[in-house]
Structures are given as C-alpha cells and as structure tokens.
Amino acid sequence: MIIARESMQDVLERSRFAIRWGGVLGLVCHPIYYLVWTYILPQPYDNLPLRLSAAFICIPLIVQAHWPKQFNRALLIYWHVCLIYVLPFVCTFLAIRNAFSTMWMMTEVMMIFIMALCIDNPFLLMGCIGIGVFSGGLAAVASSPVPIVLTTANQSDLALLPVVVLCSMAFSHAISKGRIFVEKNRALQALAGSIAHEMRNPLSQLKHVLDRVEETLPALTDAARIPTLAGTGAAPLYRHLAHGQLSIERGLRVIAMTLDEVSAKQIHSDSLTYLSAAATTRKALDEYGFADKKERSKVRLVVLEDFTFKVDETVYLFTLFNLIKNALHHIAPLPTATLTLTVDRHSVTVRDTGSGIAPEILPHLFEPFRTAGNSAGTGLGLAYCQRAMRAFGGSIACKSEAGKFTQFTLQFPAVTESEVAGHERAIVARTTTLLNGKHVLLADDDAAQRERTRRTLSKLGTQVSEAENGLVALAMLQQGTHYDLVLMDVNMPVLDGYTATERLRAGRDHPNWNVLVAAYTSEPGNVARVLARRAGMDDMISKSCSVMELFTSLQALFDNGNRRELSQRFDDFSGKSILVADDDTYSRLVAKAYLERFGASVIEAQHGEAVLERLDEDVAIDAIVVDMNMPGMGGLETAAAIRARTDAYANVPIIALTGQSDIGAVQACMAVGMNEVMVKPVQVGSLYACLTRQFARLHGGGAPATMTQAAASSAQAGAAAPAARLIAIEESDLLDDNHLGELAALGLLDEPFVNGIEQIRLLIAQLGASAAARDLDAAHGALHLLLGASGNMGAKALHQFTRQIYPRTLEGEWPAEPDWLGRIDRLGERSADALHRYLAAASADRARDDRRDRPAQPGPASTSGLAVREN
Question: What is the CATH code of the structural domain delimited by 728-853?
Fold first, then answer.
C-alpha cells in the first residue's frame, strides 16, 4: 500500500482535537499552578505576567473552529508556536530561575512527554523542544539578578534530560507508527468498500441478464424431452449472454484499475499507440455501464475538432470511466443536470452541470485517499487519472463553481503528422513482412467489398482468393489448397459465416480445419463477437475500420494465434493430458473448455498440494497450467517443488496464470523454472499457441525455455447495447479524412472507389423502396451493406448514423429515430457528392505531383504503393 505524503491540511485536520483541548489546558493550568506554587506550596520564584501571557495566547486555540477558512493554514503554525512558548519556554525559564530544584526537574520531564503527546513527528518534536528550552534558558539567565549556580545534584538531574528527550522521541515515533497503521487499515477498509460499491453496478447488470436468460429459456413441459431453440429463440439468449459478458469485463476493469492505483503500477510507454480521440472517446461511452436509458440520455458527446493522441487505450478508457462515474454520481439527484464530453484541439473535457465542488477541496482533489461527497469511494480514481495523464505526457485539471458546474480537462501533447506517418509506415512494414506470401480466403457476398479488401491485401504481397458465400468458401477450404487466414463475412446468402465456420471446425479430416478465421463484419455490438467465438472464429474485425486498423488487427490476429509452423506437427492436443490448477472454479472451467476444444483431456486441481498429489499418483501429465495465487501452496511454490523432483515430471512444461502483468511477477515465475506466463483472463488463441510452443520444444528435444513472453492482456469489451449508442451526428462532418488519406496512400482511389460511391447511392435507393414496401428483411440487408460500404469509403457521418439505426433491425424492428429515412437519404446524397469532390481533388493533386516529379525522377515508377504520404 502506498500512502501519499501528508499535506499541511491533513496534519491540521488530525490535530484539531489536540489543539482545542491543549488550548483549554493551557488557559486553565498556568493560572492555577501560579496560585499553587505561590500560596499553597510556595516556591522560590514564579512569574504572574509570564503565566498570564501563556494562558492568554491559548484562547485562539479554543475557538479555532471559528477561524476564517483562509487562516486555516496559519492555525497549524500558531499551534506549534503556542506549544513552544507555553511548555518548553515557560517551564525551562521557571526551572532555571528555581535553580533546577527536584520539583521543577519533574516539571521539565513532564513537559517533554506532554510535547511528545502533542507532536507525533520525532524530528519536529526535537526541534520544538530545542527552540523552547534554548530561548527559555537565555531569557532566564538574562533576567536573573544573580548568577545561576547549579549544585552537584542539579547537574546529575540535568544529565538525565537528554535521555528523557530521546525517550520522548521514541514515544512520538511509536505514536506516529500506530497512527499510520490505523490509517492504513482504514484505507484498506475503504478500498474494500470501493470495490464492493463499484462492482455492484456490473453485478446487478449481470443478475438482470441472467434473469432475462431464464425468461427466454423454454419450459421443460416434458421431463423426458430436452427442448430445442429455434433461431428466433436463440437470438435473445446470445444478446443477453453478450451483455452479461460485457458486464463481467467492466467489473474486471474496475478491479484492475483500483489495484493498479493501490500498488502504483507503472504505465509503460511501450503500450501507447496512436488513436483518434473522437473514436476512442465514443468507445468509452459505448462501453460504459449506464444504469438505464434515462442515465444514458443525460450524457452527450460533442466533437468540435478530432485529433490524434498517443495513449494506452485501456488506461484512457479507465480514466474516462472514472470521470463519467463521478459526474453521474453528483448529478443523479438533479433531474435537469447533464454531462457533456467535448473533443477539441488536443483536449477532452468532461463537464457536468451538477452541484460543483467546494473551493477548499479543489487543491487536494487528485491526492490519493481523498474523496469529495462520495462516502463509498476511496479517492483512488482521480489520483489514477492524474497518473495516467502524466504517463501520456499530458495533464488533468479541474474547474468548478459550487451549484453550477464541474469541468475536468484532459490535455494531451500534440502529435505531429510526420510522427503519425512514421508510425503508419512502421505498421505497413511489419504487416507486409507478416503477410507477404500468405494465402488469404476472402468470403463476402458484397463484390465491391471483396474487391476493395483484395486490393488492400494484395499491396502487401498477399495471395487472395474470393468466395461469394459460406458454402463456396467451405468447399474451397475442404480442398487441398493451404490457407493461412480466412476473412469471413457473417451475413451471407446460401450459407452464413457462423455456420460455415462451425462446419469447418467440425471436419478435422482436411488440412484447413484449424485455419485462422476472423469474422469480417459490419455487425455492431458485442453480440457478434460472442457469436463469432461460439462458432469457432478466432477474432472479429470491423469492415468499417481504417486501413491501419485493419493492418493492426491482422498483426494481433497472427501474433495471438500464429501456429502455422507448428501445426504441421500438432494440429490439436489429442492424446495430451493437461493439469489445470486454480482455486477459482470458473477459471478452471474456462481453461478446461478451451483445452478440451483442442482434444486434450484435463485434470483439475484446486491448490498446489493437489498438483503434487496428482504427480505422486503417477498419472500421465504432459503440461501443467497453474494459477500464481492459490490458498496453501501457490503457483511459485508448486513450480519450485516440481523442478526439484528427480523423476520425469521435473521437466514438464509449466504455464503460469496470473492477474499480475508487471515485470516482477514475470521474473519471479522465470526464477522458479516456469516456462511461460499468461495474464488473466486467458484467451483461447494465446493458450493454444503457448502450449503448442512447449509441446513442440519437447518434441524437438530442445533445451528448456529460460525466458518467454508474457501473454496478451485482457480482451477489450465490444460495443455496448444498441440502446446506449445514440450520439449526435454532425452532418457537416461528412468524411473521414484520415481514412481517405490511407486509401489514397495505398492507391485505392480508383475505379472500384467510384463504383463504391455509386453503390452507396444504389443502397439508399433500395432502402427507400424497402421502407415503402414495409419489407423489414430487405431494409435490414440494405442497411447491412450500407454500413460496410460507408465505413470503407470514408463516409464518416453516414456510417455513424447507419450504426445508430441498424441495431433495431437486428431485433426485428424499424428504426425509432424520427425522419430516419429522410436523414439517411440526405446524408447519402451529400456524402456521395463529397466523395466525388475528394476523388477529383486527389486526382488533381496526383497529376500535379506527377508533373512536378517526372523530370527529377526518370525511369519506372515505384510499384510498392505502400508509402504513407506526409501532408
């Protein structure tokens, strides 16, 4: 646990009780002791003006609660000045004037320990006592009419004072440590409360999802018959399942964010990538777990000027989730309050019209363990936001006016066009290296879409084959031709992509049964991702993504599931026995399901002792997948015990599963002899590739691995529920210039591009005819094709609006937006005209560049077509 350095305000708040009652005792005790030492137990010397002055300066301490707030900082200083004068100065002055008699030596000792009770910092204590004793001593010597003479007994007593001071410092230190321990426990309790509070929302959503699943399942009217679900009955189940998985992923994000902040986990710069601020912010709204439609309606996104920033997408989403959550908490009691996210000129602002933040809280808003009006939180969220923005090279600031608004501004460093261009060139170069010579099958019923994708991939040296539906694709895959990747549209006539992939995975008697398959689709939402995984697809790639996003997705696909070289020897894990050790039953079930899908038999264990027991039973085990943290014997101890054996199990591959992705955890696993480390939640492609590497190593007789890579981090959640996607679209923002620039750089602004523009016009006309005939199926088909075409052509506003209205057609309903048909008709016409103008301007620029460059560059032109132009 990392506790932030205390501010003066923190010390003041903790000391208020001592200040109040210290003032009362100082005011009362000095006059009383003067009367006692003068009239009841007379002493050689006392001083009434000194006593009264000490009592008088204590009065402001008693009424400190009524000090003006602007003088609070001075209160702490005044408190320590009073302590110095009232205790060590006065006591030392009177002790010297009384020649350090035994009674006054006892008073001096008592004074030192009272100071230790009031000041819990040992060094500050020593300083205050030193100042008071020194100044009191000088004053006593200077005011004494006769020289001060110390007896031998007095000198012996004085020799004890340094020991008393050291004891008081130790006492002060003990008090300080005890206070820190108590505050640490309180912080841990607050952390537990925060996690419980934050998890309530996703778990409530998950409960709602399970309730809907229960309602959707058919009744068991006949105990001897298992009911079956038709397609219309299964669709709601998959939708509920997708929403449930999204809720779980949100909950895992909350836990990861909280624990990262508590451990002050470093945000590594190598995880930063270049992203669109508008698109990434819109994704945050898509994925945020709003309580209901009413809460979602309070939030809007305004994009004044999009820009490119360099961030870790997950960390940025966490940051926005924190700010959105805090804002919604404060505007919840206000029916008319709103929350607006604005993207403009290297900044993202989050502004709510709620109750505001008190001025005295603002300077301390980003300190760990500080909250403002939210008793259920730990105050870790804003500290995390600040640390995230610093890791991005930016900053976060807050402005607020009580009763009016609160605005957080995220300021990002400028990213130059040349920097982005260099990044894009690196992506193109790496993707070219990865895909050059690969054979890709493109299955899509949209001929124009196939043509555009084929031309893009061909630029990378990829051999592309085409199929117009799933049945043709399946027939091609079942022949002898070897393929490295299948880009499979999910909605196709004759045979859809889901069914084609299921049949492909089921037939293990042909060489392509385990080829990489990506759902290449315009379908929005997490539902398509769930259906793709269920069908056996390895990943999902959006048709509307930019060229660079497509290349990045292909890189990730091959990195996570690259098994071409090894699959010649290990197409599956048939005959392999794998031991999975984890105290979490659900985690074991997930890993077991993954492994059994590849033909392995799985043995389960709940802790390290059970793993060793299985090995002692001499059961055939080919690999061990073990969780790092288990009750009793954890993963590290288990691996160390296995490596210390003298039998054949000493070299069995051991894969670590852990929720920790820092380098320390990885090094600890390597140190005890583990072969690889995988970060939870484990993905099927990563687990398969990991075990395949280890089996191939053993099969080849290579030396045991000493260093491996950490597995990929948690998969990101898909888009949110359709109801939560309504975002205002500015019709003036018609085109995606970045996407069109990528098309131009790749030489794709050609005849197929012109045909694509005409296809947009044709699809909108078909959509109008379908709406007039009230043919919902035909309208759904036209919208499906329009979604992909507009995204690939760079018709940004049209694509965004189509994304909003399309999901309702998936559920068998017409779009609910008013004048949706008229609006999409206007957007389509304007987008098509704008695309024609862009094409004409690009052609003119290209011709002008050719005329300018021709004299200086004789000879044949470059045929690579892959250089990213710097504007």
Answer: 1.20.120.160
